[in-house]
Specification:
The chain is an alpha+beta fold. The protein contains 17 helices and 31 strands. The strands form 6 sheets. Strands 1, 4, 5, 6, 7, 8, 9, 10 and 11 form a 9-stranded mixed sheet that branches. Strands 12, 13, 14, 15, 16, 17, 25, 26 and 29 form a 9-stranded mixed sheet that branches. A 5-stranded mixed sheet has the order 2-3-19-24-18, covered by helices on one side. Strand 10 and strand 11 form a beta hairpin. The longest helix has 17 residues. The chain binds sulfoacetic acid and manganese (II) ion. Sulfoacetic acid binds next to helix 7 and helix 8.
């Protein structure tokens, strides 16, 4: 097959990889419908994909991973910078020379008898000044078909790149799916990612966390922009004006649900609408007018299936009805569709579980879908996808929102005093573990800016980069920074805030604060709403004025204990911790006295 480009840096890199892994042939992914169709058919013929009911789920397929390969592997994800200090105390590190040598030994000859697929892709709308280009080599059709949903792939990308060397190298080899030899390595200085011995999502769709967060965060530091683990949503008010929010949450806090929020009835009646620009990643840069603009570098949703249903997230569910690849869900054999826990109360009886074994949802006491089973769905399918989704210049950001799951500590919402205090608020993000993950429940895990496993360099330098970006912004134009907590519990352990669509009530306050339209109470941790300013109309019987007051309170004793936890966490970063954050911690302690 003819090369799709004459770009010398791409061609020489492919030659280099070919010599190492020895593919039988090379196939360039051109982005055409015909080629995708042919690859789907080939994957079905080998059993790699199962074609689902084309009347109910047109162009949808099912895939099962190896049972030992069902999630990202953080302990085998390495940042390969020349010194360990550059990777910092929160990343796993290996020296680049050593890592390249190890990976070459693992990948050597691994494509013998196999095809090398060359996927040129753009993170961000093709040709956007905020977009970046990558080329992923893979021996997996599943990876090709997922990348074709999650990113913009094909010839047009190479045409934009021309002969430039400014692109990210991604090399993936399934090898034997051996967990002992599984490595996901980022080489920020070389714009390179190498992934071996996996065939699952975030380990192998190299445009996602590997490029769009780990490599891009490093590029952003050097080039003056930001790559963040944030959703982007637009809130359209009754007057027709839309304001945009970027929000970061640790896993299991309902990020995809927030990104596709359905307004409560009383807001719908008034004319409010919520638009989804992205559910996972934001690339953010200062625009000509001095404001920060964000794009979603992705083109699809790689969402967790279990728990997604008509009530929790009808927009996500609707997104999965065509052109979607399901991974590790239940296969309903009666009508050749899919099912997962939490979809409905009607599990199929004649089915296969996620491992491909016969499964009866009525009688079985084990789960049919893997808890981390996924759908890969095109963003265009989403009923509330923003009209600005393809805007090459992105959308202007009014607010950054950080969040976490805290049963007692953080109030429903608070606003930072200024940009640097906001960076502090992001840096102290933490969440209590849920029963969904292995390990003890209710343990506080620090996850600054939700970037803990995704920052491609020293987290302390990343905080300094946030502070430096703030210095370039006129305070009137800088997004305001907030923290939310949907998960406060009463003494009986009941959630005190309904969450889901009702979170719009909090976003509404946030946007009013950005417009200077509403007052707030200053507390030790920042500005907290006055209870009368959070609209609880229509929540009668669910949230009373008193319970709202109690989820807005700031308990100084709990916060004093939290300050000790923050100091302990900060100590890991030694001298590299920005002076500004030390000062912010001192201010917090002083405010609590
Ligand atoms: O596996 S992914 O990294 O793509 C998704 C996730 O774990 O957040
Ligand atoms: Mn994520």
């Amino acid at each position: 097959m003819a090369n799709l480009t004459t770009n010398p840096s791409i061609l020489s890199w492919i030659e280099d990889r070919k010599a190492l892994v020895k593919p039988e042939k090379v196939v360039w992914i051109d982005g055409s419908k015909e080629q995708i169709e042919q690859l789907r058919a080939e994957a079905c013929s080998t059993g790699e994909l199962i074609k689902l009911n084309q009347e109910k789920l047109p162009d949808c397929y099912l895939h099962r991973t190896a049972v030992n390969d069902v999630a990202r592997v953080e302990n085998r994800t390495l940042i390969c910078t020349p010194t360990q200090e550059e990777a910092g105390p929160t990343n796993n590190w290996m020296a680049p020379d050593e890592a390249y040598k190890m990976l070459d030994e693992i990948a050597k000859d691994s494509y013998i008898g196999r095809t090398m697929y060359v996927i040129p892709y753009s993170m961000g709308p093709v040709g956007s000044p905020l977009a970046k280009i990558g080329v992923e080599l893979t021996d997996s059709i599943y990876v090709v078909l997922n990348m074709a949903i999650m990113t913009r792939v094909g010839k047009a990308v190479l045409d934009v790149l021309g002969d430039s060397n400014d692109w990210v190298r991604g090399f993936h080899a399934k090898c034997q799916i051996d967990e002992e030899k599984r490595y996901i390595c980022q080489f920020p200085q070389d714009n390179t990612i190498i992934s071996v011995n996996s065939g699952y999502g975030g380990n192998v769709l190299l445009g996602k966390k590997c490029f769009a967060l780990r490599i891009a965060s490093y590029l952003g530091k050097n080039e003056g922009w930001m790559a963040e683990h944030m959703l982007i949503l637009g809130v359209e008010k009754p007057d027709g004006e839309t304001k945009y929010i970027c929000a970061a949450f640790p896993s299991a806090c309902g990020k995809t649900n927030l990104a596709m929020l359905i307004p409560p009835e009383i807001y719908k009646e008034k004319g409010y609408k919520v638009w989804c620009v992205g559910d996972d990643i934001s690339w953010i840069r200062k625009g000509a007018d001095g404001r920060l603009y964000a794009i979603n570098p992705e083109n699809g949703f790689f969402g967790v299936a279990p728990g997604t249903n008509e009530k929790s997230n009808p927009n996500a569910l609707a997104s999965t009805k065509k052109g979607t690849i399901f991974t590790n869900v239940v296969h309903n054999l009666d009508d050749n569709t899919v099912w997962w826990e939490g979809l409905d109360k009607n599990p199929p009886e004649n089915a296969m579980d996620w491992t491909g074994k016969p499964w009866n949802g009525k009688t079985s006491d084990v789960k049919g879908a893997h808890p981390n089973s996924r759908f890969t769905a095109p963003a265009v399918n989403c009923p509330c996808i923003s009209p600005e989704f393809e805007n090459l210049n992105g959308v202007p950001i009014s607010a950054f929102v950080f969040g976490g799951r805290r049963a007692k500590l953080a109030p429903l919402v608070y606003q930072s005093r200024d940009w640097n205090h906001g960076v502090f608020v992001g840096s102290i993000m933490a969440s209590e573990t849920t029963a969904a993950a292995a390990g003890a429940v209710g343990v506080v895990r620090r996850d600054p800016m939700a970037m803990l496993p995704f920052c491609g360099y020293n987290m302390a330098d990343y905080w300094q980069h946030w502070i430096d970006i703030g210095k370039t912004l006129d305070p009137d134009k800088a997004p305001k920074i907030f923290n939310v907590n949907w998960f406060r519990k009463d003494d009986e352990g009941n959630f005190m805030w309904p969450g889901f669509g009702d979170n719009l009530r909090v976003l509404d306050w946030i946007l009013d604060r950005c417009d200077g339209k509403v007052d707030a109470a200053e507390t030790a941790i920042g500005f907290v709403p006055k209870a009368e300013d959070i609209n609880i109309d229509g929540l009668e019987g669910e949230v009373s004025r008193e319970s709202l007051e109690s989820i807005l309170d700031v308990d100084k004793d709990l916060w004093a204990a939290e300050a000790d936890g923050i100091a302990e966490f900060y100590a890991k970063f030694g001298d590299r911790l920005p002076e500004t954050l030390k000062e912010e911690l001192e201010t917090l302690k002083a405010n609590l006295k």
